[in-house]
Structures are given as structure tokens and as C-alpha cells.
Design a protein that fits this description.
Number of strands: 3
Radius of gyration: 20 Å
Helix content: 40-55%
Number of helices: 3
CATH topology of one domain: Histidine-containing Protein, Chain: A
Shape: elongated
CATH class of one domain: Alpha Beta
Largest sheet: 3 strands, mixed
Structural class: alpha+beta
Distance between the termini: 75 Å
Order of helices and strands: HHEEHE
Strand order of the largest sheet: 1-2-3
CATH architecture of one domain: 2-Layer Sandwich
Length: about 100
């Protein structure tokens, strides 16, 4: 029995739906850059020491670049550590300025 194009399309759609509903079975793909930037920003805002600072995070190919001004080098190091622990981040670069 030959498979018609319509039956093939239905099977393909069913496979896609199953992959979406069963994420453990679907192939993993790296998080997109916008999602990574958003996740890093949320983590920075949630931090007690850094949440009030105006820090920015941009991402290109999984590498996050932090920018903004922090009061101390310890705060800069803390921001870098927070960004590094976000799942999917491949690397972190700093364009943070230390000081007033």
C-alpha cells in the first residue's frame, strides 16, 4: 500500500506534535539569544546587590555581554558569575564600568 502525500503530511504533523508535547524525546537545541539575554537580566534583577543597578545583557551566539556601571569590582565579578550560571550561556564578556 502506497502512502499518499496527505497521509505523509498527517504523520509528519503528528510527529511534530509528539515532539512538542514530549520535550524529553525531542532533540535539544540551544536557547536562542533573546531568551538568554532575558534570563540573564531576570537573574541580575533578582539579585539583592545588583537588582537596583541599571545593567544590560546582550547575547550573540550564546555569548552574553554585560554593560553598565557597578560600584565595585566585586559587583562586576558577581554580575559575571550570575550570567555564567544561566543555562545555555556559552560565555560571558564584560563591558562593565567600575565606579560612579
Amino acid at each position: 500500500m502506497a502512502i499518499t502525500p496527505r497521509a505523509c503530511s498527517r504523520r509528519f504533523a503528528a510527529a511534530l506534535l509528539a515532539a512538542a508535547l514530549l520535550p524529553g524525546c525531542a532533540p535539544r537545541r540551544p536557547a536562542d539569544d533573546l531568551s538568554l539575554s532575558t534570563s540573564v537580566k531576570i537573574e541580575l534583577l533578582a539579585d539583592r546587590q545588583l537588582g537596583t543597578l541599571r545593567l544590560d545583557a546582550s547575547t550573540l551566539d550564546g555569548v552574553v555581554t554585560l554593560s553598565g556601571t557597578v560600584p565595585t569590582q566585586a559587583d562586576a565579578d558577581r554580575a559575571l558569575a550570575i550570567a555564567k550560571r544561566v543555562r545555555g550561556v556559552r560565555g560571558v564578556q564584560s563591558k562593565l564600568t567600575v565606579g560612579k
